[in-house]
Design goal:
single chain, mainly alpha, about 65% helix, globular
Length: about 220
């Protein structure tokens, strides 16, 4: 029980870090500087305001200085990352959790800007290739490179290049059958969100589906 609690704390800290990194990506800020602060009033946060989950509850989801709302996605990400980390039992499961964390960060960026840092795809694909042969490594990297080179020349793509990159990465991890099941749930989530109209970022739906399947296994 104590080990699960420790893993949850580590995971929630990582979730908090990913939210902060995504916020800085969206705002065009450095990942390292300045120190953590309120996005509304820019007031630096004290140590007790940086405790994952607990700080959000104590502050009731609002900045103590300006009363600005702290996005609920912060709490959701901290709790989800904490739960994911409790599933780590060996090297293989650790790689999966790291893979989910990378795509979770990408989804946070994509949700707000419909873009995310390109390095995420390469690192995540590298994690998904760890148990494969050199031939599969070559094939996976070739697919990723082809997507990067060809997608900018497609005037009206029906799917984002980042979405396709995650699909390739997921298939390398779990195979075709599991990928089909994962995509069905993600598409249903996307269709449900698309009812409001307009273009939506699909990567968050892919990540939610992936997290759900992993927690259920």
């Amino acid at each position: 029980m104590m080990l699960i609690l420790i893993l949850f704390i580590y995971g929630s800290c990582m979730g908090s870090l990913l939210v902060a990194m995504a916020s800085r990506y969206v705002n065009g800020d450095s990942y390292l500087f300045p120190a953590s602060h309120c996005d509304t009033c820019q007031t630096p946060l004290t140590y007790w305001q940086l405790v994952p989950v607990l700080s959000y509850a104590l502050l009731r989801g609002k900045c103590q200085t300006c009363d600005g709302t702290i996005p609920a996605v912060t709490l959701i990400m901290e709790v989800t990352a904490g739960l994911l980390t409790t599933t780590v039992t060996d090297w293989a499961s650790l790689l999966v959790v790291l893979w989910l964390g990378l795509w979770g960060f990408a989804a946070l960026c994509d949700w707000q800007t419909q873009t995310f840092p390109g390095w995420v795809s390469w690192v995540a694909t590298g994690l998904s290739l760890w148990q494969h042969s050199p031939f599969v490594w070559l094939l996976g990297c070739a697919c990723l490179l082809a997507i990067h080179l060809l997608w900018p020349h497609w005037r009206h793509p029906v799917i984002g290049d980042g979405d396709l990159e995650m699909m390739v990465s997921y298939a390398l991890l779990w195979g075709v059958t599991a990928t089909a099941h994962w995509l069905v749930v993600a598409c249903l989530l996307g269709l449900w969100r698309a009812r409001v109209g307009g273009r939506i970022a699909f990567l968050p739906d892919l990540v939610v589906s992936a997290v759900g399947w992993w927690l259920m296994t």
